[in-house]
Each structure stands twice: as C-alpha cells, then as structure tokens.
Write a structure and sequence with these properties.
The protein starts with a strand and ends with a helix. Strands 3-4-5-2-1-8-9 form a seven-stranded mixed sheet. The chain has a two-stranded antiparallel sheet with strand order 6-7. Strands 10-11 form a two-stranded parallel sheet. It is elongated, with a radius of gyration of 26 Å. By secondary structure, the chain is of the alpha+beta class. The protein has helices at about 10-15, 35-40, 85-90, 115-120, 135-145, 155-165, 175-185, 190-200, 205, 235-240, 245-255, 260-280, 285-295, 300-315, 320-330, 340-360, and strands at about 1-5, 25-30, 40-45, 50, 60, 65-70, 75-80, 100-105, 105-110, 120, 150-155. α7 (about 175-185) packs across α10 (about 235-240) and α10 (about 235-240) packs across α14 (about 300-315). Helix content is about 45%, strand content about 10%.
Length: about 350
C-alpha cells in the first residue's frame, strides 16, 4: 500500500500558489476498500471508493482505471483493484498539469505536466479526455483561473473539444455541473477566459442555448470587462455577464442551469433596471416610485444593496439612488393618517421623491 499526493495540490505548489488552505487529494495504490475501512477511513464515494482520513478528513481515493460505457460523465465503469498502478491512475486525468503526483518530496510526472506548467499550456493527457464532457468545462475554468499566468489551451486539446461539441457529447452535461464550474470561474479575477474558451470550441452556444450568441454591449469584447470589475463575488459577476440580455433569456438560462434564487432574482433586476438607473434623476415620480416597489428596496434591503453594487460595477452613480432610498426608509409612519395608511404612505413616498427630483434640477 502506497499513498501519493496528487492533482491540484502538486500543481499549485509548483506554481507557488499552495498555502495552508490548499485542498489536498491523495491516491492509494495497492489497497482495497476493506483494508481502508480497517484502518479507520470512512467511505464516501458512491461510484468508486473514496475515503476520508480519520484525522485530517482529507480525501483518499483508490487508484482506478475507467472504461466508457455510456453518455455523459456518469457513463463509466471503474476498476479499483490492487493491480492498478499510479501511472494508470494518472493517465485517466484531464490535463497534464493535473496528472502529477508526489511522494516523500519526489515528483512523479509521467506526462510532462511540469513542462506544460512552465510553458503555460493546458493540454489533455490522452484521447480519453473526449469521453467526459465535464472536461470541456474544466479546461475553460482552468483557462480562467490561470489567465494571469498566461496559460493557453493547447491546439490539440482545442480541436478535441470542438469534436466533443460536434459529436453531441457536451449535451450530456448536467445543469448542476455547468453551474458549479460557472460559479467557480466567476469567482476568479479573470473569468472572461471561461466564456472565451467555450465560445471558441462552440460549447458556449450549446451550453447556454437560451442566450444571445453576440450580446449587444458597449465593451470591446463581450466578456473582457468581467476581468476589470472590483469584486470577487460570483453572483454579482453573474449579473454583469447577463445584464445585456433580455428578461426572457435570463429566466430561461436560470431555469436551465437551476441557479440559486439569489442569482436569478438579482440578475433579473439588474437587467430590468440597468438602463433606468443610468438616467435615474431624469425619471418621473411615478417611475421612481415603481422602481423602489418592484425592487422591494425597503423590505429586501440586503438584496437592494447588492443590486446597487451591480450598478456601481457598471459605472452607474448610485449615490442619488442610495440617498433617496434612505429618505424613503425614514418615513415616520406613526405621524401619518391611520384611516387609510397605505394611501398615506404612498403619498408621502411620492412627495419625498418629488422634492428629491426638484432639488436635483
């Protein structure tokens, strides 16, 4: 029984990115499920044996081979026998930079991953790459994560990804996995590469089929501006990505990807009112009152603050909106006519808005 550190932890150490928060994954060669259980590990993998260390809770997977038997990333059979070698296990991984291992300070690199790290290349390990559609998403995500280092997708890998799109393999992707990779990519400093890589191989149009292929935007590139916004919050960048889309398209893509409500609600409000807030002080009293009602600004204050953050990231001056919202929130309801309180509140709001607009003339 031999244990090796594998994958991302090895890659990130070589890139100088590893720290105490780096997630570590381990491969166990020459063992069995029964032996792992006897040693106190807890099994968590369903499709193949993955175990949690009794102390660190880190993941330890038995070395495995896989054989494609059906569509999608679940269409595999696995061999986790003691005969499976480390190199065989590494050979089934997606990219060479993820197919390295370490043991006792020694680097095991059968597919020249370190050379590709040094050359900034995202290159597939073998043609088995084309059997798993999730790998298209992962390559795009790694392109986003490592764009600051100058990483590019290897030409041979790009061709393979195009073939996977043409064959329909990417159509087997599940909404949950697409959203997971999308959200991770949006959390990086340079998410534009995720969308660019998918667009270049034809996957963007297939995966986000309800969206416009060419989004109308004032930016030179429809994705580049995402790299220059001052936030690391993926749900805010999600709104920025979709802000030029029409409402129906946003609803469709949110349903298609099964995104959390926080993402969907904020994205719809951002797109719906983006043009409105750009000329906020030129709007009518009725329109501004309607804006605060539809955004539920006074009851859903946290969400409204996030909406203002989205607009601020889009270079909108949010100060007048925030100031007016503060005035509306300070209405003394106790001083209003109790006979028809709803009408009295509405009238007071409109009076405050009218005074605000008059002051800005």
């Amino acid at each position: 029984m031999k244990i090796y550190l594998v994958g991302g932890a090895v890659r990130d150490r070589l890139l100088g990115l590893a720290d105490e928060n780096t997630e570590r994954d381990w491969v166990v060669v020459g063992s069995s499920p029964d032996e792992m259980l006897d040693l106190g590990y807890r099994q968590v993998g369903k499709e193949f044996p993955v175990f949690l260390h009794p102390g660190t809770q880190e993941e330890y997977a038995l070395a495995r081979l896989e054989r494609k038997v059906g569509k999608g990333y679940k269409g595999f059979e696995f061999d986790t026998s003691k005969a499976v070698t480390l190199e065989q296990d590494l050979s089934r991984r997606d990219l060479t930079i993820n197919a390295m291992a370490e043991k006792d300070g020694e680097l095991i690199d059968p597919f020249n991953g370190q050379d590709d790290l040094n050359n900034g290349l995202l290159r597939h390990v073998s043609d088995a790459f084309s059997e798993d559609p999730v790998r298209v998403l992962r390559v795009a995500r790694f392109a986003a994560r490592f764009k600051p280092f100058g990483f590019k997708v290897a030409h041979t890998t790009h061709r393979l990804m195009k073939d996977m799109v043409a064959s329909g393999e990417v159509d087997a992707l599940t909404p949950e996995r697409v959203f997971k990779e999308l959200a991770k990519s949006l959390s990086y400093k340079t998410p534009s590469a995720f969308f660019k890589v998918l667009a270049a191989c034809g996957a963007y149009e297939r995966i986000f089929s309800s969206l416009s292929v060419d989004q109308p935007t004032k930016h030179v590139n429809q994705f580049d501006f995402l790299d220059h916004v001052d936030t690391d919050q993926p749900h805010l960048k999600f709104c920025l990505w979709l802000v030029a889309e029409n409402l129906d398209n946003i609803i469709q893509v949110c349903q298609q990807l099964k995104v959390p409500k926080q993402y969907e609600q904020l994205a719809k409000l951002s797109a719906q009112f983006y043009q409105f807030v750009q000329a906020f002080e030129q709007q009518t009293v009725e329109a501004i009152n309607d804006f605060f009602i539809k955004t539920d600004a006074l009851r859903r204050q946290d969400r409204f603050e996030e909406l203002l953050q989205v607009f601020q990231l889009l270079a909108v001056d949010i100060n007048p909106i925030a100031a007016l919202k503060k005035q509306l929130a300070s209405i003394d309801i106790a001083s209003l006519d109790k006979a028809n309180i709803a009408q009295a509140i509405a009238q007071e709001r409109k009076s405050i808005i009218a005074l605000f607009l008059h002051a800005t003339e």
